[in-house]
Amino acid sequence: MAFIPYIAERDVAGVARALLHARRLVAETLPVRAVVSTGSAIALAFLPYAAARGIPAHYIESAARTGKLSMTGRLLSAVPGVHLYRQYPQAAGGRWRYAGSIFDGFEPRAASPRPVRRIVVTLGASARFRRLLERLTAIIPTGAEVLWQTGDTPTEGLGIEPRPFIPAQALSAAMQAADVVVAHAGCGSALAALKAGKRPVLVPREPGADAVVDAHQQEIATWLEARGLAVSRTVGMLKLDALQQASSWKVEQKSTVPTFRLEGIG
Fold first, then answer.
1. Mean pLDDT for each consecutive 10-residue tract of the chain (266 residues)?
2. How many alpha carbons lie under 13 Å from residue 6 in its C-beta half-sphere?
């Protein structure tokens, strides 16, 4: 296992530095059967280099991208020899194949309605989303037990006990014990809630308001809601009834899930 230094968004210099790591790792592990990445910026360092060396290179576009490609996806579309995959059949076309989705393994099930007494709020590792916290403090009933995982979001004046970081295992346990999970519409947070058996309330960060570059969070929240795997609300439309609606459902993992197959790899 090797760790690559963090590459910031639109960080050209960071991609160039990661290319040095790609060259070293490939040289140290030859022969390499394949290089696979879901991005984002790290894929720009590893996959073109692998393809140029004749090593099968595979890029799986993020599950957060139900429509428009990410910047990484657009750039890799122009690189010969890189195999390209989408996680939504309607988004495939041209060189882009549909080969399955990370969400294929989940299905919703109705559950007995119950009061919303225990809530997990999660904003991920680095997202800033104070508007959501302000809205939740206004609608959550007095006396409810709330775990606030806040990332880098400032919380002064909100009267909550923030926890910027919670280990994955502890967060999963808290979600399993909660009546409802409320999260920004990041794929990691959505998946964590689904794996914990919860139908989350997803509140997308919005371009122009929440320091996000495009509407991909709105797209993924809408897609998951259409399949019964989430309740989607904007900050302005978020009310207590959305939390109550989500708590009356559970999510189960399917016993069998179709295999995601890469070209040339059995």
1. 84 92 90 90 95 95 89 95 94 92 92 90 87 96 95 95 95 97 94 97 86 82 95 97 95 84 74
2. 3
Q: Which amino acid is at 8?
A: A
Q: What six digits make up the tokens of 161?
A: 């006990």
State the pTM of this model.
0.86
CA 205 – CA 212 distance, rounded (Å): 7
Distance between CA 229 and CA 227 in Å, rounded? 6
Beta strands in the chain (DSSP E): 35-37, 57-60, 82-86, 96-98, 106-110, 118-122, 145-149, 162-163, 180-184, 201-203, 231-232, 249-253
195 exposure class (CB count in 10 Å sphere: 0-12, 13-18, 19+): middle
Do β-strands 249-253 and 106-110 pair in parallel, antiparallel, or remain unpaired?
antiparallel
Pairing relationship of beta strands 162-163 and 57-60 according to DSSP bridges: unpaired
Q: Which of 261, 194, 201 is nearest to 231 (CA)?
A: 201
- Burial letters for 41-56: b for 16+ Cβ neighbours within 10 Å, e otherwise? bbbbbbbbbbbebebb
Report yes or no: 229 and 199 within 8 Å, Cβ to Cβ.
yes
Positive or negative, the CA dihedral 76, 79, 85, 88 is: positive
CA separation for the pair 113, 247 (Å, rounded): 7
133, exposed or middle or buried, with CB in 10 Å at 0-12, 13-18, 19+? buried
